[in-house]
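Comment thread on ticket #2218

A.B. wrote:
> Attaching the input chain for the structure job we discussed in standup.
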Amino acid sequence: MKKLAVVSLFGLLIMAFTATVYAQKLEFKASGFIESGNDWGRNMTTGNAAAGLYQTVSSTYLPGGAAYDETNAWMRTRARLKFDAVMEKNLSGTIFFEMDSTRWGETGDGRNKIGYFAGDRAGLEIKNVFVDFGLPYFGIEAPMTMRVGLQPLNIRPNMFVLTDGMGITGGIKADPVTIAPLWFKALENKDYASDDADVYGLHVFGKVDTFTLGGYGLYYNMNTYPLADVTPTNRADFWWIGAYLDGKAGPVSLNFDLIHDTGKVESRTAGVRDVDYRGWATRFKIDYPWEKFNFGMVCMYATGADARKTSSTGLPGSLTSTGAASTKVSSYVMPPASEAFAVFTEGHVFYGTGLDQTSTGIGIAGNYTSVSRGTIGGTWMAKLYSSYKATPWYKVTLQGLYIGDTTKNGNTVGTARKADGTTLRNDKTIGWEFDLINEFEIYKNLKYTIAAGFMTVGDGLEYWDSAARRNDKPKTPWSIISQLMYTF
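C.D. wrote:
> Ran it. Output below, let me know if you need it in another format.
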């Protein structure tokens, strides 16, 4: 019995020593954040359900809706936890989790429901699971890397694409240029049928003096469209081609983007006309720091749809505002499932803010199964702002925006009609927005931010009241949003 005990102890020591030896080769890292905050406001729609190409306001926030002209308030929480297992310079793995409570005190179970009173919700989301590794040279004098698994598809996220999906991305470092080919499987429907969806792309960028220049092209081959269709009724092919610049000219920081989309949605039903897509968007940003101040300007323009030529959904067989078949979409659109609509945070009330994860903003219209105008399609904006670092722990920013409408023969967000009660009105002004942002650094890794903003109601924000048979101008939209963020 003693021999057995000794042998067992010896075996345990060997296992412990072996585990220690292997552990020395593995560097295990953890990072993430925990944030909580509140949203309080009026007529600043939350996560728009109407994810079309124009008239994109949820019915809840239209005349007669439960939240129209009402004050809304709630608390929310988001947490992310990322684990990186680094075996060596050329080999690592990543597992990334996310947990959300979109409303403290929510009911039910599952995704975005950890705010349930009494806790114990099944709200753990798997965001990323992938492996990074270096490739042998194979005679090519350039370092090459590859990433395989559930990973970010992230190119110019505030304007173009930000999502997660199963895919393979590469990196070829041919100084001063990096070449990054990519492939993602957006949908695998039936194994025995050609009804899946794939994303193919190439991203090239490099450093030139003080600037980073980049260009990219992505092709979405969607044999099932929208992606959620169980029995495909349409197919689609889309291209996005873009170029950008980031850098400094002396003390001045510059950012520039230009994106063009083109594509076609084809019906699988005989006799139904296809819908052609073609749009573009651009953005220019400049920052000038001076002592404790920073002065900046942002201009953005994105094409809008023509309500006489396209329906709000842009699908074949759907009807325009005049009752004709939808044939053309001239609005700038972003890819299915892209969360760029939540990352364009140049505003606070209309375009949304980076302080909450609930995508609050009047102009937001993202779609996870079809292309959509996102936040910027059908609008243009000019923004001026200034920030002052009053103390090492306090910074204040004041900003003002003019927001215009680029949709033709209709409005991007508003639903106003002409005197006949049928024809959509075409207005150019959505409104002016003014915001005040206060940032407090409590500790190095703990920050509290509170921002307030309001909008004037331009003609482009008037809504048709079907019950009263007249246009209705909502009360002034405003919001106060806070965030307490702990990063680690």
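A.B. wrote:
> Thanks. Noting for the ticket: The first strand starts at residue 27 and ends at 42.
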